[in-house]
Amino acid sequence: MERLNGIEGGGVGANVDDGGCGSLDWETFEFGTSPKMDRRFVDSSDDGLGPKDVIGIPDNVLNNIPSNSITYRSYVEYESNIDDITSLNSIHAKAELSNLAPDVVRRSIDVLSPYVRPRRLERIDDVLRMRTRHARFLFENPSNPSNVYACLRTLDSFGIQYVDVVVTSSAYEGKAAMNQKRGMRTAMGSASWMTVRQFGNVDEAVRRLREEEGGCLIYASDLNPNARDVRDLIWDVDYDDDDNDDEGSGSVKTTRTSGSRGQRPICIVMGNEERGISEKMRALADETFYLPMCGFAESFNLSVATAITLAYMKAASGRGGDGVTTGDDTATAIDPDYGNVRGPLRPGDLDPHELQCLKLRGVLNSLAQKRLGKILLDKEGITLPKSLYKD
After folding, report:
1. Which site in 230, 281, 353, 370 is 20 to 30 Å from 217, CA atoms measured?
2. Has residue 263 been placed in a domain?
């Protein structure tokens, strides 16, 4: 975890002597020359004899099955079931972690910490202290696993802890889309330093964001005529202000009063690489925005758009008195929960229990051997959910 900031090696084309077949490692990953078919997004078996592929038919078999055959239709149904299971498991895993008793979390960290290098423990603490829960991202039906992986790495480097992904099975038609979707699951599963949930549809994702995640505002990247320039978005929206706002989508407003009950968190939505966001997401979003650009290209690559959006969010974030603006040059935003803080990126706003839970997961991920954590904790009579252990 010593190098979570920045991309090592110079990006595309760097260190690809192995033909893009190297390991999928969160901290040292470099992109190959054929990202859509990158073999590192295939889950390989420990014996090196081929893919485990417990989540689908191997590519070389799938590609030779006629699309109109019973076998292929059965596989499509099987893939849909796997999507549902992945969604349920990701939501359940987050709940299991947050529901751990504080004493169990503390004891577990105490037992495991002596088996992790002191430098790594310090780095885990340093990184988690810079995490934010006020802003999160959601990706709607992305198709390219390399794009997803690049987005996650960039989000990690900006301190984003929580990411959601909508995977609507029916949106992935054809063998190529199936292969890429399977690779995308591998990419999402590799983000062990972040909290990633998967949803099967937009309605469920937005419902949970609004009901369970502090009433998130939904700001979706879109090229519709009513979309705002990202620089004009209002990031500091008081709960009290928005509770009385009946004007509907595209009318987020704020008076930023000091008597506020706090400010609503923000979820940034990025759509599919080719189709963008869905009509459903467009209707549910509180705001839609675009990134200013010039040239003949109509849009940025997904991972580039994510990075640019984060850069604008970073520029609009800061602490009171530093001259940072938030879409209104005359506004002063004060969040009573976290002090004189403004903007979407608010490092250090995780609550103490949340912080310790994430530290426990980080310590488990840092053990030299996958099974060591369970062995050590079993000796002390501590039982943790299976979802906390690496496969």
Report:
1. 353
2. yes
What is the C-alpha end-to-end distance of the chain, expressed in Å? 20
Nearest-angstrom CA–CA distance, 322 and 134:
20
pLDDT band at 187 (very low <50, low <70, confident <90, very high): confident
Residues 6+ apart with CB under 8 A from 221: 268, 269, 270, 271, 276, 277, 288, 289, 290, 291, 305, 309
Half-sphere exposure in the Cβ direction for 345 (13 Å, CA)? 20
> Is the CB of residue 268 less than 8 Å from the CB of residue 135?
yes
Examine the domain organization and report whether 250 and 188 are in the same domain.
Answer: yes
Rounded Cα distance, 268 and 136, in Å: 6
Rounded Cα–Cα distance for residues 280 and 141 (Å): 13
Distance CA 27, CA 365 (A): 13
> Could you tell me the two tokens for 162?
């929580």
**Are residue 155 and residue 119 in the same domain, yes or no?**
no
Residue 45 lies in a domain: no
Is 67 within 8 Å of 175 (Cβ atoms)? yes
Domain that includes residue 296, residue range: 132-346
pLDDT tens readout for residues 261-280 = 578 999 999 999 889 999 99
**In this predicted model, what pLDDT tens digit does every residue of 307-317 receive, in sequence order?**
999 999 999 99
Distance CA 285, CA 383 (A): 41
Element (H, E) at 136: strand 135-140
